[in-house]
Amino acid sequence: MLDIFDILGPVMVGPSSSHTAGAVRIGRMARTLLGQEPVQAEIGLYGSFAETGEGHGTDRALVAGLLGLKPDDMEIPHSFQLAQERGLRFSFYTARLREAHPNTAVLTVEDQNGIRLEMQAASTGGGRIRVEKLNGVEVSFTGIFNTLILRHQDIAGEIANVTRELADAGINIANMNLCRDRRGGDALTVIETDQKIPPAARIRIERLPGIRRITYYEKED
Amino acid sequence: MALDSMREIFEQSRERNRPFWQVVLDTDVEERQVTAEESFEKMRATWRAMLESVASYEGGRRSVSGLVGGDGARMRAYAETGSALSGSYLQEVIATALCVGESNACMRKIVAAPTAGACGVLPAVLVPLYRTGDAEEDAVIQALYVSAGIGAVIGHRASIAGASGGCQAEIGSASAMASGALTALRGGSAEQIGHAAAMALKNLMGLICDPVAGLVEVPCVKRNVIGAVNAVSCADMALAGITSRIPVDEVIECMGDVGRRMPMEFRETALGGLAATPFGQNVKEKMKHHP
Fold first, then answer.
1. What's the CA gap between B126 and A27, in Å, rounded?
2. For the stretch B151-177, what's the b/e string if a residue is b when 16 or more beta carbons lie within 10 angstroms of its beta carbon?
3. Domain of A63, in residue numbers
4. At A92, which CATH number?
5. CB contact B61 to A (< 8 Å)
6. pLDDT tens-digit profile of B80-121?
7. Residue B1 — pLDDT band, cuts 50, 70, 90?
């Protein structure tokens, strides 16, 4: 069912829940998944985001999210200036995609160590979002759950090890999705949980053999 | 339970002898695994943000296109002359709807209810009652649970997004939510809340989403006024004992169906309706060159 605070909410800076609040959340998601302060961002706008994005402040909202602002932050309209102060360089282009949601953004972000992340996400209405691609791999998660993203080796028992750690920490899995590029290669697992995953459990998971990288997104309160 | 139909809420309310708002609160407690107090305080914070969205209005602000701003102040000034056709409550409802809708267009902080485009409707009917002392804060918060329950059912059975259901899904839904909230606030039964919501939704059925230049400005701001005023009249009808002949769940399903059959030109694409008028096209052209 719908969260009643998605019906009465979010508390947000206008003018559009999909083009403004959703855009802030997309920016925040990219920042979180990068794991570090972004210093560079190329932002592709598609569909209605490209058509009416400027009038709705979609551009400023995406940059605000990249800076870690929340949808109700009154600094959103001034995010371009804030980005300059904080050393985030950004540019926009019109993205050409095939069969994407009409409110879609593609963000290529980079931290100061040159680590890059490419994320494609859609704003699906009422401020809700869905991440659809991560570094070229198709995914599907929304940020309405606590979300653990694992890059790991494609080996037998890997998921069992991870879920055992979660079970031991009393954490229930709401949704789960696993993709790999080829047998024995790299795999990407997205696990959405009802409870927050405490740092200790995340460290134990990170230390499991075969785990290359873990990223964690904690849902907004 | 989930908030899947109004009938389900009526039944829960009857079987467990709980008012409508409490059935919605119980569901939130179960769904998000929080205490009743935590849920209630979150709703209080939502209400306070709504109050703030009204209080922070300034008539001098203008939207990006320059088309929106100042009308809330204009309406209030006119009301003060004492010559308004509507009474003291209704004229403040109109002014408040304009103020919050304009603030949204000017990138100020609002509460999406259920969307940003329709954010003026609920504060418009509730804040004036609260400010004159005709409604206590806790009673208003309970009324907000009622509105959230109605919105959740509409979101589940139909839609609350203009892109999928037209303006009837945004302003229509907000109006149904506000009408139910007012009915609850005035002591109406769960069934009366249902009738108020049904009537409000029926009255705005078929309303298209046709924003000029794709912006949440024209005609969105003023449609918040019709949503609010319609909510008041439907709540009054329900409290007078007038019923919706068509059951509320059927009305909601029907709104969803009308939305699905609506041509895409009338669903937020800014390709039809008022957006396609010569004036609307002109604004769109101007925005392209000087956004």
1. 34
2. bbbbbbbbbbbbbbbbbbbbbbbbbbb
3. 4-141
4. 3.30.1330.90
5. no
6. 999 999 999 999 999 999 999 999 999 999 999 999 999 999
7. low
* One domain for residues A118 and A207: no
Tell me how close the Cα of B112 comes to any Cα of chain A, in angstroms.
Answer: 5
Q: Is B92 helix (H, G, I), strand (E, B) or coil?
A: helix
* pLDDT tens by residue, B169-191: 999 999 999 999 999 999 999 99
Side-chain half-sphere CA neighbours of A197 within 13 A: 28
Same domain as A126, residue A20 = yes
In the prediction, which pLDDT does A84 show?
Answer: 97
Strand A38-47 with A89-94, pairing: parallel
**pLDDT value at B212 more than 60:** yes
Which tokens in the block code for residue A185? Answer: 């290669």
- CB contacts of A52 in chain B (<8 Å) are 213-215, 270
Pair B15, B22: CB distance under 8 Å? no
Is A57 in contact with B64 (Cβ distance < 8 A)?
yes
Q: How far apart are CA A11 and CA B23, in angstroms?
A: 24
pLDDT digits (tens, 9 = 90+) for B110-121: 999 999 999 999
Are A164 and A90 members of one domain?
A: no
Angle formed by the axes of helices B20-32 and B6-15, nearest 10°: 100
* Nearest CB neighbour to A14, from listed B105, B122, B160: B105
Closest approach of chain B CAs to the CA of A172, in angstroms? Answer: 12
pTM of the model: 0.91
Chain B residues with CB-CB distance to A77 below 8 A: 107
- The CA angle B84-B86-B90, to the nearest 5 degrees, is 120
- Residue B81 Cα, gap to closest chain A Cα (Å): 31
Q: What is residue B267's DSSP assignment? A: B
| Domains identified in chain B, total number | 1
Q: Supply B126's token pair.
A: 């509730």
In our burial notation (b when 16+ CB lie closer than 10 A, e otherwise), range A76-87 reads: bbebeebbeeee
In terms of residue numbers, what domain contains B16?
6-288
CA distance linking residue B185 with residue B208, whole number of Å: 30
